[in-house]
């Protein structure tokens, strides 16, 4: 009799766990207010006008890629307002050394939820896009979006 009760209990627990998994899999990702990347260019005074335009274009390219990847992977829903606010910036040390950063804060408390960054080598469209995808890989792998 005790054995039968334990078997029933295990069955009920397994069913409830299954429902919990299904419910969490269908849950909406958190909303995230995400502005475009900002550029911190330590070499700006030595940069040509054409190179500045390239950087501005890459900022728009990287910002769009970040939005696309976060939503495609269902990590966040990008909205004008949300419980999370992200600040993103690119620190350009030179045309060879750049750093992509994201800091996510709680909108209600302004406390940092997480921050992460990646270094990239080379100032090309492809290196920036690869850096953005790596940044999102890190957020996903560390499950930062669940915090």
Describe what this molecule looks like in 3D.
The protein has 147 residues and is α/β, with parallel strands linked by helices. The protein has a single domain, classed as ABC-type transport auxiliary lipoprotein component (Rossmann fold). Helix content is 44%, strand content 28%. Strands 1, 2, 3, 4, 5 and 6 form a 6-stranded mixed sheet that branches. Strand 4 (84-92) and strand 5 (97-106) form a beta hairpin. The longest helix has 24 residues, at 2-25. It is elongated, with a radius of gyration of 21 Å. The model is unreliable at 15-24 (pLDDT under 50).
Comma- or semicolon-separated keywords:
alpha/beta, Rossmann fold, 6-stranded mixed sheet, 3 helices, 6 strands
What order do the helices and strands come in, and which of them pair?
Elements: H1 2-25, E1 30-34, E2 38-41, H2 49-72, E3 76-78, E4 84-92, E5 97-106, E6 112-121, H3 125-141
Parallel strand pairs: 1-3, 1-4, 2-4
Antiparallel strand pairs: 4-5, 5-6
């Amino acid at each position: 009799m005790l054995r039968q009760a334990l078997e029933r209990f295990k069955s009920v627990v397994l069913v409830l766990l299954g429902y919990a998994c299904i419910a969490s899999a269908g849950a909406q990702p958190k909303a995230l207010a995400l502005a475009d990347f900002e550029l911190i260019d330590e070499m700006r005074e030595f940069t040509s006008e054409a190179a500045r335009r390239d950087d501005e274009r890459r900022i728009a390219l990287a910002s769009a890629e970040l939005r696309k990847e976060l939503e495609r992977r269902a990590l966040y829903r990008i909205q004008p307002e949300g419980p999370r606010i992200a600040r993103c910036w690119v620190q350009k040390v030179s045309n060879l050394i750049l750093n992509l950063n994201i800091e996510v804060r709680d909108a209600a408390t302004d406390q940092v939820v997480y921050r992460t960054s990646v270094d990239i080598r080379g100032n090309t469209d492809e290196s920036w896009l690869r850096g953005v995808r790596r940044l999102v890989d890190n957020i996903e792998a560390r499950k930062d979006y669940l915090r």
